Structure formats: C-alpha cells, structure tokens
Amino acid sequence: MTTAATIQHSFLLLLLLLPFLAAHDYREALSKSILFFEGQRSGKLPPEQRQAWRKDSGIRDGFDSGVDLSGGYYDAGDNVKFGFPMAFTVTMLSWSVVEFGSNMPSDEIRNAAVAIRWGTDYLLKTISQPNRIFVQVGDPVEDHNCWERPEDMDTARTVYSVTPDNPGSDVAGETAAALAAASMVFRDIDNNYSDTLLHGAFKAFQFADTYRGAYSDDPAIKPGVCPFYCDFDGYQDELLWGAAWLRRASGKDDYLNYITTNGKILGAEDTVNEFGWDNKHAGINVLISKEFLEQGKLYSLQSYKASADSFMCTLIPESSSPHVGYTPGGLIYKPGGSNMQHVTSIAFLLLTYADYLSNSSQTFNCGGVTVGPESLRLQAKRQVDYLLGSNPKNMSYMVGYGDHGNYPQRIHHRGSSLPSVSDHPEHIRCKEGSPYFNSSEPNRNVLVGAVVGGPGKDDVYEDDRADFRKSEPTTYINAPLVGVLAYFAANSGAGADATLAKHTNYIK
C-alpha cells in the first residue's frame, strides 16, 4: 500500500472509530442507571428515598388474598407488578454485580445491593406459601385504561398465582435464578440473608421442575398477562436458566448433572440470537460457558460453549453467520417494541463473554474471522455509546444524562408525567390524568436514569409520550446496563480506548 493510500485508509478508519471513542461519563451514567430503580418502587418507601417525587403506593397489595405482596417494582410506565419480567430484572441486576461489581465504586455497590434487595424481598413473599407462587399484582387491562399516579391507583389489584394444577415453570424458574444470583451478591454483605435467598431458590426451582407448564397457558391467568408478558418461547429455557444459576451459586453437582442430562430435551442447542425476559437461551449458553472455559475437562458443557460462540458470531458484521439487524447509525435493532432491551442485554453478554474468554486466554472463529475479547468489548462499547449520545441525533436515551438536557423529555410513564403528590396532594382519578398524557409539555418529574425503548430502525426518535414502543422505560432495559456501565466506568480513558481501537478487524 502506498503512503498516500495508507494515510487515506487511516483517516477512514479514524472516521469509523469516532463514534466509539466519544467521551462519555460512564461513572455518572452508572449512578443514574441504578437510581432509576427507586422511581419504580412499589410499597412503603424508606426515608432515604432519592427520587423524592415518588411516595408510598400499593401498600395493601395482596391483603384481600391473605398475603403481604407489598413492595417490588412496577415494570415500566404503568402500575402493575408483573412477576416474570421483575424476576428477570433482579437476575440481571445481580449478574451485573456478580460479574462487574469489582469495577464499581463502593457507594454504587451499596446502591445496587439495595436495588436488588428491594426486588428479592418481594420475590421471597411470592413463594411464602406452600405449593403456590404469586406471579402478578394488578389488572393490566384496567390499569392501562387509566393514566394515574401509582400513589392514587384505584384499579383492581388482582392477585394471580400458579399452583401444581396450574403450573408456571417459567416464572418459578426465573424466580429461582433471581434468588440464586442475588444470594451471590449478598454472600459477603449479609450471609444469613444470602442463605435465605439460596434456600428460596431451591424451593422455587423444585416447584418449577416438578410441576411443568407455562403460566400463560392457565385460562385464569392468561387474560391478565397476555399479550403483555405471555410466555411466547416456552418454559424450558427457564428450567435450564434456573438450574445454571443454582449451579453457579451453590456449586452442587446435582445442578451440573441436570444441565448436562436435560440440555437437549429442554432446547439447549437452540441457536437463538436473542436474550431477554422471555428467551434465555443466549444467556444460558454464555453463563454455562464460564465453567467449561475454566475447566476444559467438563466436556459435557462443550455444546453450550459452541452455542455461545455461534451467538457471538451473529454480532460480528464480517462473520458469515446470519446477523442481527443494525440501524444506519449502528444500533442493534430488532422489530417490535422497546428495542433498547435488546441493546443492553446483548451488550452485557458481549462484555461477560469477553471476560470469560480473556480469563481463559481463548478466542473463537466465525468462519474465516478470529474473534477475541477486545472485539467483543468494542462492539459493546459502540452500543452503550450510541445509547448515551453518540448517534445521528446526538441524543442521550437515558433521562437525566446528556448535555443541555438533550434526552427524552416526554417519556411514557404515569408517575413521571403527572404532578407529584407533594405538588398536587389531591387525588387524581383514572381519567383525570388524561390531559397530562395528551399534553406536549415535558414530564413534570424527571425519572433520572430511565432508559427509553429508543429510536426506530431509521435512528429516528420523536420524543412522543403516546409512542410507548419508543418512549417507555422498563426495569429490564436498565438491569443489564448496570453491569455494562460498571465495566466501562472502570475501563475507559485514553489508554483503554486506544487498546479497543486496535481491534477493528471486523469493521468495514
């Protein structure tokens, strides 16, 4: 290559790298991503509540059913407590701390542990009765017909549960995963609580495996969970997911044997380039690969490593594998709503797998392309940087983060859009909130740290409260993002960015 051609090639490469190397304050974003969960709390709020515009809500949840189901999280911009995505949120918050807690400042580890415990305290309540797991509080049809603050809600707080006759292996398996993962977080913080969580995980998994079935197949539950959080992909992945986390948390060979003997039966070899509250396969393969990479003698787990490699290859543009979609600006894009849930969960898996490979000094092949840890980290960085503002609109998709307030102002969120109880003590009934929903004014309360569903496949975002697919935040968008931001908060700066910049073999 001539000198002129070399200079031109270097210049073009620099242009390609500019979005990756944009300066972002990952430490600030990390803090705000955790703070978000305080805005989603249900129940009696503690004195140290930092999102001060929120007040107590759902105090009597479960009372009419003879059980205390106060606490936990609202999943998004509504006032329903959906157990399936809530348990996944707790699993991912816990996995974020398990993998990347060593990168977090001590105050943020503490804040993350508080956020996890707010979820696990509730999940323990859901398994408090024998042969019954409570999976949801609130009638979503009635709730979605109103625009009112959680502090005011007067819609039915219907309680839904699964039993041996009407099982729910999906929610029970995810609850087991959440409690097991959280037990690892609290092992060095509160050992007694950690033991309680692990015991609860054993109990939830036994129920999930003994009484098999999808919770949304129950005619009594289906109208309350579908189409919102139907189990579209089956309960089998949650059984493997729960077993994998119990193996990781307890070290018991019983769960290793379960994984190896039930893998094919439960679809472990399904190649699915998706990871989220409904489909766990990519996460299962990455999680289980850790043990194979660290102990190569466990050949029974080799297929999980191969599936994890295949998933990663779908994220490498030069790979011959079928690829996930990208927007023109470079954001991972999947059709449907709340696209940022895919962005944050996949970025988390990229970083986690990169660490597993790095710790075992391994790479993998995608056709003729050799991929190492830094290539995966670079791809994850591209996604998080886009989310924080390195995108065609130069807009942060995290509320409260970004220059000159250039972040979503009209998010689809009842509590954020309506005046707080402090400013408007009078009750705002179901339809009385409609003028606030229809208003073009910015939301009254800033839900700091909330990440919205994000732009469409054309990188366009209109900041429209009514367009919930783009403007609604969810807990399961933020949960994996906590780990991603923790990694980059500890591994950013000129030296780290220069290292990433060397690994561009798959960027065209």
From TrEMBL:
Gene Ontology MF term list: cellulase activity
Origin organism lineage: Eukaryota, Viridiplantae, Streptophyta, Embryophyta, Tracheophyta
Signal sequence region: 1-23
This protein's UniProt keywords: Carbohydrate metabolism, Cellulose degradation, Glycosidase, Hydrolase, Polysaccharide degradation, Signal
Catalytic activity from the UniProt record: Endohydrolysis of (1->4)-beta-D-glucosidic linkages in cellulose, lichenin and cereal beta-D-glucans
Family, similarity comment: Belongs to the glycosyl hydrolase 9 (cellulase E) family.
Gene3D superfamilies membership: 1.50.10.10
Enzyme class: hydrolase
InterPro entries per the UniProt record, alphabetical: 6-hairpin_glycosidase_sf (IPR008928), 6hp_glycosidase-like_sf (IPR012341), Glyco_hydro_9 (IPR001701), Glyco_hydro_9_Asp/Glu_AS (IPR033126)
Protein name: Endoglucanase
Database matches in PANTHER family: ENDO-1,4-BETA-GLUCANASE
Protein EC: 3.2.1.4
Presence of keyword Transcription: no
The UniProt record lists the keyword Hydrolase: yes
Active-site feature positions: 463, 472
Stretches assigned to the Glycoside hydrolase family domain: 26-485
Organism, scientific name: Zostera marina
GO terms for biological process, alphabetical: cellulose catabolic process
